Amino acid sequence: MTIVRIRLLWHKQAQFAGYLLAEKLGLARKHGVEIVCEGLDFSCKHVGAILTGATPMAVASPAHILESADPAALRWVLTVQQESPLVYPVRIRDGIDRLTDLAGHKVGVWPGHEDLEFRWMLQRAGLAAGAVDRIAMPDTVGPFLAGEIASAQMTSYHELHLVEEELGAGAVRTFSAKDMGCSVLKDGLVVSARFAETDRQAVQAVVDAVLEGWTIAFREPERAIDACLEARPDVSEAEHRRQLADIRALSLTGAALTDGLGYPDSVHVDQAARAIAEVEGRTVDASAVLDAGFWQAAPESFRARIKE
Predict the structure, then answer these.
(1) How are beta strands 154-155 and 172-175 bridged, if at all?
(2) DSSP secondary structure string for all residues of 118-166
(3) How many CB atoms sit inside 10 A of residue 249's CB?
(4) What is the pTM for the complete model shown?
(5) What does the pLDDT look like over 243-298, one tens digit per residue?
(6) Confidence of residue 191 (pLDDT cuts 50, 70, 90)
(7) Pairing between strand 74-78 and 189-192?
(8) Are the CB atoms for 22 and 209 separated by under 8 Å?
(9) How many CA atoms lie within 13 A of 90 on its CB side?
(10) What is the C-alpha separation between 131 and 102, in angstroms, rounded?
(11) What CA–CA distance (Å, rounded) separates 15 from 39?
(12) Which helix H or strand E contains 231, and what residues bound it?
């Protein structure tokens, strides 16, 4: 049995319901592959885990690939969420009405090349690179709730929930890159280029299993919730349900509606390359990043268009 480890982008939660189901149900075993999902390790995150040889696969984004130490060693094979989930809330009482009002303030961002979208937003708003003090921190909610920072990078399906529960939905307003035409995709499946070349059968087995897992998660949410509760019993069932509903909305849109579940749309790679060019002033070669062959070879029933 070939064991394939997938390094998740965050701690296990409903964000990864399809992966957790693929692991729990052993959906790749019929092809001699055992999937093992690993939660976030801040010392070696997502694509870093692939480049160091810790795992052959990771949940990451095209931007993570293009900003990595070796983009040519990585391949983007699936896009589950078809939209960026990132939002940047501010407290209404602070009088921050526009993105430009963040000038001179502290904003929390996740460490390790996670703030490309936010920097692009600032540039689109006409703010200089150093106008906002970006503070790297794993926990962006705590400092925000304590009033230590004016805003923070959060996801609409997780951290924003915590903030609205604590402060009330009417106490915050959110800025979104989507509203400015500069969103950068967050989640998808990335694989080592070497692994993709030397063991395409194992990679295909994982891709098929992950797509099947997400198909089950969206069509039979109770099974997904059970898998999430088993993986993270410290998270309430209500939060798992709310998060899964948000993930469904982010996933069943865009190319998922026209091409099918998990379709790795090249527009997301192009968008990440454009962000790097505009924000960092450098051109990256994105021509070899996308490998849609595994998605195309997956059973049609696993990549079918799922109606909302």
Answers:
(1) unpaired
(2) HHHHHHHTT--TTSSEEEE-S--HHHHHTTSSSEE-EETTTHHHHHHHH
(3) 16
(4) 0.95
(5) 999 999 999 999 999 999 999 999 999 999 999 999 999 999 999 999 999 999 99
(6) very high
(7) antiparallel
(8) yes
(9) 18
(10) 8
(11) 12
(12) helix 221-231
Q: What does the pLDDT look like over 193-222, one tens digit per residue?
A: 999 999 999 999 999 999 999 999 999 999
Residue-range domains of the chain with CATH: 2-83+185-302 (3.40.190.10), 86-180 (3.40.190.10)
Is residue 17 over pLDDT 90? yes
In angstroms, the CA 88 to CA 38 distance is 27
The encoded tokens of residue 161 equal 């929930």
Q: What share of the chain is helix, strand, coil (3-state, %, to 5)?
A: 45, 15, 40
Token pair 């997780």: residue: 158
Residues 199, 202, 206, CA angle at the centre, nearest 5°?
140
**Whether pLDDT at 163 is above 60:** yes
CA angle 30, 212, 257 (to 5 degrees): 150
54 pLDDT tier (thresholds 50, 70, 90): very high
- Distance (Å, whole) CA 9 – CA 188: 9
pLDDT score of 134: 96
Query: What is the pLDDT, as a whole number, of residue 308?
Result: 52
